[in-house]
Write a structure and sequence with these properties.
heterodimer; A: 380 residues; alpha+beta; Butyryl-Coa Dehydrogenase, subunit A, domain 1; Butyryl-CoA Dehydrogenase, subunit A, domain 2; Butyryl-CoA Dehydrogenase, subunit A, domain 3; 3 domains; four-stranded mixed β-sheet; four-stranded antiparallel β-sheet; 10 strands; globular; B: 378 residues; eight-stranded mixed β-sheet; 11 helices
Chain lengths: 380, 378
């Protein structure tokens, strides 16, 4: 066993933290309050190379390994970037662009990836439906082949980047009589007739990410927009799970370090009863809880990443454990951090209430904690 | 980066598990009567001496990664017999490690070699009645008299004291920390009757008293001047407790999982009920997270020891508390079967409490972790 990062990886992480603190973090509170997507910051992520880290250089990426990519996510969280932007990045780079990279034709790769990697275009992924959340196989959206076109009908919900996306990877049933085997994946561009997005949903947290429904009403797309073969869609969606359990968890891991640093700074300055509150054991205990969570959760995400770098098939048990732990156990530290700040922690002026709200997504998004428990209990 | 143990390490773990489990089937290693005789622990030591286990973390062993391999192996030993584990570790990774790291060549030849061969048993006496060496100085002290040192003091909760051949007693000599190596026959050494504890019943634990106990100067170990001896010893204790916590988690989880798959209710195995299946999922999550954290901690202790202090405390708190939670949940899954004395899950539950109290207590550990975050240093 060897848990070391290379010197290059460590330096890269520091660079991202420096970049994010300077270029993105100063705008986070403003955009969270407005519930608006920060296009400028998103483009800056692209300019810095983060959006395309793991993609080949031929498409504008950097060819980084998965561990380095996860390190970037952790660094964004550690710098104080909000959960909305990191979620938008995750949906864009891993759920949309990566699926195109893996399954599209070379022509399609060349068409979409450079724009997605630079941040010129924004991507999203449409899987969840109003009546098909964790139970993906019961999706109702259909794609009927008519000549050299597919005609999509149905709707999707809770789609991160939905209202702002230029391109979507959409899952639909090409064989409604089948369950998982009837699901196929398609590329759908913004502006396609019959394709529209709903108004952004008002959410408790990750507010700078724009989330909406997607509607398909006799939406015709060229047959070549089918990714892979008919019926392969479910397996494609499973491949995104590897990213979901590593790169998308990483910002939550990094956020714990951010909370720890912020709480420590505050506890040293804030005085009550004639001394800094950091001198009280109860406050130290809360800081300790945050640090313990940060240390415990790190290796889980990196193990998934390292295994992916080794080319191993995803270990679904370990992936579910990582998601369950980061999801459920992150709530305690987020609560502790808010309490350290007292009344200020409840106000938007300080970051803790936002992080508390953002953290609440961890046990819900990408497969709820109950679904993870279901997976684990079946696999053991 | 590499998240796998090597095949050689894995083979070692399997080998130890098999042999120790076979021995545990024939010996009451975790019953109170085991603490009254050396016979059982001698057999365990002899068995472990056939493998590199006793030397890990103390001496380099080809093909193994010191503390890291040790942590994986500790988990296995603690899962089979928590009591034997605690005795072995007190002898090896407290007494043995102290002699190995701080002793003279002569002391190593006299005391370390037989301990590493599993032929003698050591103990380390640190805790005193103030119960808090974190803030209070050690009161056990030695005074030089010619070529001898005369020691006075009282120690409590000394693992192995009733059966140890030699006890390393932490104290002060001429304003410096020192370890006094006191043989069991030494005049002035009184070993109190073994304590009855709620867990680890097969481990002999007692207090000791030193009243004008005289030893030659060459039986005194002086740690290097910059070493904070009590802190270092506490860290070593914490590492032992980390291994214990992993072992208890493993036992409790696996036992509960196996029970849930075979015990039927309403015509189906109870694991099919979400109440049980989800509980097992949470238990496994705590167990696997504990493993990774403990392994990373051990790796850090091996490769960059200066960076390990706070990480060991984080891991100690997390793993010790996880062990109690996992064994507590396992008890619920086993129902009445788990409540019967002697069941390995009820044993794990009782032992798990010790992990939160011993070494650096979880409360004090949290204070220290908080201090580190705040930039406060004790």
């Amino acid at each position: 066993m060897d848990f070391a990062f290379t010197k290059e990886q460590q330096m890269f992480k520091k660079e991202i933290i420096r970049f994010a603190k300077k270029e993105i973090v100063p705008r986070v509170q403003e955009f969270d309050l407005k519930e608006a997507f920060d296009f400028e910051s998103f483009r800056k992520l692209g300019d810095f190379g983060i959006l395309g880290l793991h993609f080949p250089e031929a498409y504008g990426g950097s060819g980084a390994d998965v561990v380095t990519t996860v390190l970037a996510g952790e660094a964004l969280g550690e710098a104080g970037v909000d959960g909305g932007l990191t979620l938008a990045y995750g949906a864009h780079s891993f759920l949309c662009a990566d699926t195109i990279y893996r399954h599209a034709t070379e022509e399609q790769r060349k068409k979409y990836l450079p724009k997605l990697i630079s941040g010129e275009w924004i991507g999203c992924m449409g899987l969840t439906e109003p009546d098909a959340g964790s139970d993906v196989a019961s999706m109702k959206t259909t794609a009927e082949k008519k000549g050299d076109k597919y005609v999509l009908n149905g709707s999707k919900i809770f789609i991160t980047n939905g209202p702002i996306a230029d391109v979507a990877v959409v899952y639909a049933k090409t064989d409604p009589d089948q369950k998982h085997a009837g699901i196929s994946a398609f590329i759908v561009e913004k502006g396609t007739k019959g394709f529209s997005a709903g108004a952004p949903l008002i959410k408790m947290g990750v507010r700078t990410s724009q989330t909406s429904e997607l509607f398909f009403s006799n939406c015709e797309i060229p047959a070549e927009n089918l990714l892979g073969q008919e019926g392969e869609g479910f397996n494609m969606s499973l491949q995104t799970v590897e990213w979901d359990r590593s790169a998308l968890l990483a910002p939550f891991v990094g956020a714990a370090k951010y909370m720890l640093n912020e709480c420590a700074d505050y506890a040293k300055k804030r005085e009550q009863f004639g001394r800094p509150i950091g001198k009280f054991q109860a406050v130290k205990h809360k800081l300790a809880n945050i640090r313990i969570f940060a240390e415990a959760s790190r290796s889980l995400a990196y193990k998934i990443a390292w295994c992916k770098d080794q080319g191993r098939p995803l270990n679904h048990l370990e992936a579910a454990v990582a998601k369950l732990f980061v999801g459920d156990w992150s709530m305690g530290p987020a609560n502790d951090a808010m309490i350290v700040f007292g009344g200020y922690g409840f106000c938007h002026e300080y970051n803790m209430e936002r992080i508390f709200r953002d953290s609440r997504l961890a046990p819900i998004g990408g497969g709820t904690s109950d679904i993870q428990k279901m997976i684990i209990s079946k696999l053991i | 980066m590499n998240y796998d143990f090597s095949e050689q390490e894995f083979t070692l773990f399997v080998d130890i598990q098999k042999k120790l489990a076979a021995l545990a089937d024939t010996r009451p290693l975790d019953r109170r009567e085991s603490a009254k005789t050396r016979e059982n622990i001698d057999e365990v030591l002899a068995l472990l001496a056939e493998s590199p286990y006793l030397k890990l973390g103390i001496q380099p062993v080809d093909g193994y990664q010191g503390q890291l391999t040790l942590m994986g192996a500790m988990e296995v030993v603690a899962s089979v017999s928590p009591s034997a584990y605690l005795s072995v570790e007190a002898s090896m990774r407290l007494f043995g490690r102290a002699v190995a790291e701080w002793g003279t060549d002569a002391q190593k030849a006299e005391w370390l070699s037989p301990v590493l061969d599993g032929k003698r048993i050591g103990a380390l006496a640190l805790s005193e009645t103030c119960l808090n060496i974190e803030n209070d100085p050690l009161t056990t002290h030695g005074g030089k008299e010619g070529d001898s040192v005369v020691i006075n003091g009282t120690k409590q909760y000394v693992i192995n004291a009733p059966m140890a051949d030699c006890i390393a007693v932490a104290g002060v000599l001429e304003d410096a920390h020192a370890l006094f190596l006191i043989e069991k026959e030494a005049s002035g050494l009184t070993i109190d009757p073994a304590l009855e504890t709620i867990g680890y019943e097969g481990t002999p634990i007692s207090g000791i008293r030193l009243e004008n106990c005289r030893i030659p100067m060459d039986q005194v170990i002086f740690p290097p001047a910059k070493t904070d001896m009590p802190q270092a010893l506490r860290m070593w204790e914490n590492q032992i407790l980390l291994g214990a916590s992993l072992g208890l988690c493993k036992t409790a989880f696996e036992s509960a999982r196996d029970h849930a798959k075979t015990h039927k209710s309403g015509g189906k195995p109870v694991i099919a009920y979400q109440e049980v299946g989800f509980k097992l999922a949470e238990m496994l999550t705590l167990f696997q997270t504990s493993q990774l954290l403990a392994y990373r901690t051990a790796w850090t202790a091996e490769t960059t020891p200066k960076e390990a202090a706070e990480l060991i405390l984080c891991a100690k708190v997390f793993c010790a508390e996880s062990a109690e939670q996992v064994s507590s949940e396992a008890l619920k899954i086993l129902g009445g079967a788990g409540y019967i004395a002697g069941n390995i899950v009820e044993r794990a539950y009782r032992c798990a409490k010790y992990g939160q109290i011993a070494g650096t207590s979880t409360e004090i550990a949290r204070v220290k972790i908080g201090d580190a975050a705040l930039g406060y240093r004790n």
